[in-house]
Amino acid sequence: MAKDGASGYADLYESSLLPLDEGNEPNVYAQVIVDVPAKQTNRPFDYVVPEELRAWIGIGSRVGVPFGPRTLQGFVVGLSAKSDMAAGKLKKIEQVLDLVPPLNPELVQLADWMSRTYVCHEITALQAMIPGALKAKYEKMIAVADRPERIDSRQPSDGEGQTMLFAGSAEEDAIVAFVRQKSAVSTEAMLNRFPDSGPLLKHMLEQGTLVEVQTVKDRLQAKRILYVEPAAEAEALLEHSRSLPSNAKRQMEVLAYFSENPEPVPLSELSEKLNVGAGTVKGLAEKGWLTVREREVFRDPYEGRKFDRTSPLPLTEQQREALDPISSSLDKKEHNVFLLHGVTGSGKTEVYLQAIQQCLDQGREAIVLVPEISLTPQMVERFKGRFGDAVAVMHSRLSQGERYDEWRKIGLKRVSVVIGARSAVFAPFANLGLIIIDEEHESSYKQEESPKYHARDVAIQRASRHGAAVVLGSATPSLESFARTGMRSSDGAGNEAAPYRLLTMADRVEGRPLPAVHIVDLREELKEGNRSMFSRGLYKAIEERLHKKEQTVLLLNRRGYSTFVMCRSCGFVVQCPHCDISLTYHQVSRSMRCHYCGLSQPEPKTCPSCDSEHIRYFGTGTQRVEEELGKLFPGIRVIRMDVDTTSEKGSHERLLTRFRNKQADVLLGTQMVAKGLDFPDVTLVGVIAADTVLHLPDFRAAEKTFQLLTQVAGRAGRHKLPGEVFIQTYTPDHYSIVTASGHDYKAFLDNELEMRKMRGYPPYCELALVTFSHEQVPMLVRAGESFVARLKDSWQRSRHKTEADRSPYDASTSYFEVYGPVASPIPRIKDRYRFQCMVKYRVGVDVSGMLTETAAAFDETVRQEKLLISIDVNPQVLM
Ligand SMILES: Nc1ncnc2c1ncn2[C@@H]1O[C@H](COP(=O)(O)OP(=O)(O)OP(=O)(O)O)[C@@H](O)[C@H]1O
Ligand SMILES: [Zn+2]
Ligand SMILES: [Zn+2]
């Protein structure tokens, strides 16, 4: 058959299978990505758009399409007048799942970009953009075997059998008519209608008169409730009322009510208000005096909550200087990325709010991303307080229904601001003006499962297509972002064109001072006989707060719990001699290993540095801290906030509200207590052990330590009362701790950049991590080594290609190294061993392309040997 598109179209006209009218609309074909995340299906398939569905199908529509023997959900990613496929092979779209496409052309293009950038299937990217409620649910239904429609390449038609179709009994005819009328019927509905038809149905299915089809359903429907409204004017209602028998008191009351309140009211509300049953209302509806109808409602997670309206604050000079460039970028509808570096309490939120106001005034829309953990009522209040019902809120603690409804408000244009965690970056706005990412340094903006995207990069992609501004805000910007504000390119870091613009707010509002920070050397405490987890300084400070009725925040970071080995006498941490990261302790083998180079050595009995015997793996739990607080300060009221106490829905908020209402003296917790909280009476912050993050086997360990300490310190003294901070540590001289105590981001940056440059880590290069897992180690080693060899080979080939047309002076970007394979830091999960290799490269190298190509060569092994290969471009977690 003709491959050429035009003649393919002509073929269709002749084809008896697809009778098309003359003078058709041009968009007769749809390109559909189907819901099968596999390499073979990772491309659009052509389908015919039937005449009757044409009005409903657009780019971004969800459809049900026949695929092999099944019906699958798919996304329409293109529409065209031509198809390269042979006409006889094309099937029709069976269903459209939404009246309005849930995605738009821009998001569909974004999915394509994501699949190429993050090495994932396009369907995986598309699915990540819609709420869980819209993920496909498949249901078996019965349909009439409509031969012409069902004929396809797999099922050559010989015309036989069709003539037999209606040669059945009267009951068979009735069944066929019934099914035909409904297009498809569930077995259940069928047996309801024809109670004894079980055997006949089976026979009809076997015979081929009926077929079993699979249809696509939503997991969740929009919620509908019954509303009652008057069907006549007030006068007429009262007249009807007078015509009722005198004992129909209830009915009279209802009519009287509607004569005064003509607006529709939910049936349940009416029943409650007037104390009448549904029967009374039904009686009146049957008389034609009232109308009862179903209406869609939104499940509102903030229903009944009042948000006091706020108006814009007069800006401080620093806020004004930060807002101006954003403002003029919005004015020009230019795409720009701003990095707003503002110290804790400098009033970044007010800058966001006023920028959003301007964006809304332009008739454009805004997205605000915040880390899940700081999506507290306090944060929501600030946005709802300023923009009221124009705000939708999306976070994971909403029920699936609530999430779906908040999301639907976007498509229905009921809201123009979305505030949410990572996935809110996909809010299907069509006219975006501004995307704000608060606490931009947070690693939770990176999704750890496929698609392994970073919300910051996705936001910038989207904004560039909309001519929108992006504001990345933080008191402790990530090194990667800061580098993009224009570090000298001779460093090799950042782009010469400085893709981000830096905006700085160096002071807290109203001249409030940053808190005074004390570093406490825990080795000294031990020397002086204090074996408690509280230093004398911190102890006294807590005691003082209890006395003054002020509040304390205590941070205990449990990340890295028990995994590194440290000397309690001198603070020495056992490190890899080749990689400058701490070795990870393995309890089972009592050994320590390096996860970058594979070095392994036994656990030391004494400290290699000071010979002390107090060397062991390190860690403390929040529960133990709570117990000790109770012992030291009898009667102290502690709120403990960690994974154990916050697993229940709403518990996080409840705990914070209790703390805000001063029902506790101390808020003790993990990283959760470090971010975004703004409580006026918190004047003391204590960090139990600052070292826990510092020694993680992660090149970002120092950066994370600095960020965490700066953020948690920033909770103290944000209002009238001045704050004080105690950082307890075994490594008081580490630059991340020293610079954090001085609130000195620049000094930290200088130190850290030096380190990164020396060791070759971002922002001096980019990373990609490939993790292999399998039940058997030899298999892994073989696969890993062969993967690395192929990848290097792919690089050699592509380098020769690109170097041919590069000027001899430009060698700077040509950088590509592969390290490993070595065992992963978590060497076994669920009985599968894990190996990894790390790729270091510079921007300009198409690492995603090379990884895709290399991985493709392992398809067979992956399938036959159950080998798993996971690719993470720009990983945040190296485990
Ligand atoms: N222009 C202003 N005039 C008076 N008060 C202000 C102004 N701007 C902000 N504030 C107040 O200053 C406090 C700190 O502001 P905000 O919480 O926005 O800081 P932030 O920069 O986001 O800090 P963090 O990074 O610690 O979250 C808030 O209580 C806020 O209401
Ligand atoms: Zn020691
Ligand atoms: Zn090493």
TrEMBL record:
Binds 2 zinc ions per subunit. GO terms for biological process: DNA recombination; DNA replication initiation; DNA replication, synthesis of primer; double-strand break repair. The keyword Hydrolase applies. Its cofactor is Zn(2+). This is Replication restart protein PriA. The gene is priA. Residues 580-761 form the Helicase C-terminal domain. Zn(2+) 1 binds at C567, C570, C607, C610. Residues 329-482 form the Helicase ATP-binding domain. NCBIfam families: priA, PRK05580.1-3.
